[in-house]
Amino acid sequence: MAMKFSNGYWMAKEGYTVLNPIDVRDVEQKGSSLTVYTAARRIQRKGDTLNGAMLTCEFSTPMPDVIRVRWTHHAGKRSNGPAFELFDNPQTPVSIAESSDHVTMKSGHLSVKINKKDTWGTEFFFEDKRLTGSNSKGAGHITTDNKEVYFREQLELGVGEHIYGLGERFTPFVKNGQTVDIWNEDGGTSSEQAYKNVPFYLSSKGYGVFVNHSEHVSFEVGSEVVSKVQFSVPGESVEYFIVGGHTLKDVLNNYTKLTGKPALPPAWSFGLWLTTSFTTDYDEATVNSFIDGMIERDLPLHVFHFDCFWMKEYQWTNFEWDADMFPDPVGMLKRLKDKGLKICVWINSYIGQKSPLFQEGMENGYLVKTLEDDVWQWDLWQAGMGLVDFTNPEATEWYKGHLRRLIDMGVDCFKTDFGERIPTDVKYYDGSDPYKMHNYYTFLYNKAVFEVLEEKLGKNEAMLFARSATAGGQQFPVHWGGDCSANYDSMAESLRGGLSLGLSGFGFWSHDISGFERTAPPDIYKRWVAFGLLSSHSRLHGNESYRVPWLFDEEAVDVLRHFTKLKSTLMPYLFESAIQSTELGIPMMRAMVLDFPGDPSTHYLDTQYMLGDNLLVAPIFNDRGHAMYYVPEGRWTDFFGGQVIEGGKWQEETHGYMTLPLLVKPNSLLAIGANDQKPDYDYADGVSLHLFELQEGASASTSLYSLQGELQVTVKAIRRNEEVRFFIQGATKPYTLVLRGIHEVTAVEGAAWNDSPSGIVLTPEPGESRLAVRL
User: Fold this and answer.
1) Is the pLDDT of residue 214 over 70?
2) Would you state the pLDDT for residue 375?
3) By Cβ atoms counted within 10 A, which residue in 195, 324, 373, 478 is the most buried?
4) What's the pLDDT band for 684 if we cut at 50, 70, 90?
5) How does pLDDT run across 123-168, given as a tens digit for each residue?
6) Which residues are registered as beta bridge partners of 737?
7) Signal peptide span per the entry (predicted)?
8) For the chain, what percentages of helix, strand and coil (3-state, to nearest 5) are there?
9) Burial per residue of 616-655, b for 16 or more beta-carbon CB atoms within 10 angstroms, e otherwise
């Protein structure tokens, strides 16, 4: 599918004709937008204007620090939807300045400078920093001898500039040198295909590019032309946005302001999930044996998921429990919920022919149709399956109705599987272009399910476990990485995919702990458990075997208990990080480059990550327990052992199964909760606030939230002249402060204190809002 148009640097491919913007003929200002008319050849006399093409470029701004660029050849071609939903503001202030040679449009701190005289050229700046640009060989309208039509753009790729994102991609983390097709496929985690394709990339130079096309977009990232990022789409026009910001996080914030912020998943969803696995045999007794086995072994469990075979074979999706296996589903769900569990069930948007819903969907026009107006069907996945047409409001409501019934029965959330293999030789109810619907279908599917959960359960109680996505899908979390294998290579490729997705505007991500395909040896299971419980969401799931730890070995039980309890105690911190993700559009699990863009050593790192602002996690990807990871500058603290690690260099260690590199950033105030049994509890009650390596002149702060996401307590620490002062607001319940690694103080005001192995523990006097510690 990749589109390359050139034969080397100088020539076009044989059979391809490329029109470039050569000669700027006119610049028009219409309100807050600019339109530039360019001839596709040099115009020296009036006669040259005849029998030639003109390419039109429009510049506008949907919001501050973002500039829209739209190239058009022939504007008369009618375009059917769908189009990405954009949260733009047509009233965004713009300034336009003209000189004899240039015209400059500025939105916020971002500006575009356009050549007005002679040859076409644009340059984009954030404040005074040049980001990228395009010249007369960049934009191009292409026709082939077969009458195919494309439009492309080429933006400059600077020396040492790295490109990230483009969705959840399992290929190398830095995208330079790659061809990337934005086309959703059900291809697993081991190839260039991806379940979640997002036509947005982030540059290490501090900007993003969003190509506003839901159809196939072909990217050539420093590949076809090694100094350019090229993107092309079929048709007579291309539209993209340059997204600016002071930092990479600001760029993601602006991009998600435009395409939608992630919702806040409920606190319970951050706990441990266990599933039936996919093709295993199970009934209520099997399910209870797992759950009771977890209880007996003191393994806190929070969500139980029923995979596909909760429904009868050949009938997916009919939303009906298999009566042979689950004769009393309502009673069963109540019994499970009485054990403190939330319930998730598997669904997809496909209706097998044997399902009673198939006939109903066919008769009412709820299923996608062929070009001949028959129901589109095939036998892949489900025999004779059809596809729900979410462009039909009645079909969407029909689908939602079945979900409401399941929620009323006791189901708390849905795993929205599939949504990638969407045909293009079909007709949609609303006349949508099937080519554009291929990637966009998943947006409508997940949106419908998410809306039902919000409607029935309330805001901040809705969450999915979704596999497919496109731009905007970040609004409906959570997403997981799809069908990985039970080996270290697949564990590493899963992390790469999650980090890429995070740099594409998605806040929350998970993966199948120990791999989906095959069954991992105990070693991999235990290493993947540590990685999985230090991810935003944590699920034990597999294909043909169960994933309870005692089926691996007894030590696996201990490892799972240890990391599950650890995650519960980290929840005050993790929930604050989750709220930050919803507000700023930045991921909870972050590639190191996002937090340390000024450190070139972080630009390639894809086997470690920041979990929120303050924790560095480096999973172990081998059976020797060997860890080699990079620590940015500063005095970092090993969370488990307490030793201080001087950063600015690589660190090499060996770990047993109960630890892995988990470092706390200097100048951190880390909130550690008092409950190790579940993720959803009162974070302010009995919380312990640990202060790590607060440097002279520095400050650290933390916030505690209610389960509804409301701010309850804020604590700030400042160190000056060998004194640490704490400022506390909103604390009404007991808490302690721990000065990690400090065992001697000369004076304490406002708190009782004692020494402990971790450091000085301060117990503030009730109602005290200020504390001071002389070191």
Assistant:
1) yes
2) 98
3) 195
4) very high
5) 999 999 999 999 999 999 999 999 999 999 999 999 999 999 999 9
6) 689, 762
7) none
8) 20, 35, 45
9) bbbbbbeeeeebebbbbebbbbbbeeeebbebeeebebeb
- Give the active site residue among 23, 320, 483, 523: 483
Backbone angles phi, psi at 229, to 5 degrees: -100, 115
What integer pLDDT is reported at residue 1 of this predicted model? 66
CB 190 within 8 A of CB 493: yes
Exposure of 271 in the CB half-sphere (CA atoms within 13 A): 22
Whole-prediction pTM: 0.98
Q: Which two tokens stand for residue 561?
A: 């208990």
User: Distance (Å, rounded) from C-alpha 529 to C-alpha 539?
Assistant: 9
pLDDT one-digit tens code per residue, 743-753:
999 999 999 99
CB 418 within 8 A of CB 396: no
* Mean pLDDT confidence for 83-106: 95
Which among 157, 141, 160 is positioned nearest to 149, based on CA atoms? 141
- Give the phi and the psi of residue 46 in degrees, each rounded to 5: -60, -35
| CA separation for the pair 452, 459 (Å, rounded) | 11
Angle of helix 554-569 relative to helix 571-584, nearest 10 degrees, comes to 60
Burial of 405-444, coded b for 16+ CB within 10 Å and e otherwise, reads ebbebbbbbbbbbbbbbbeeebbbbeebbbbbbbbbbbbb
Residue 208 C-alpha from the chain's centroid: 15
- Catalytic site residue from 156, 420, 461, 606: 420
Q: Reply yes or no on whether 298 is catalytic.
A: no
Give the model's pLDDT for residue 117: 84
Say if residues 175 and 200 touch (Cβ distance below 8 Å). Answer: no
Q: DSSP strand E in 553-680: where?
A: 589-590, 609-611, 615-617, 626-631, 635-638, 644-646, 649-654, 662-664, 668-672
Tell whether the model's pLDDT for residue 118 goes beyond 80.
no
461 is catalytic: no
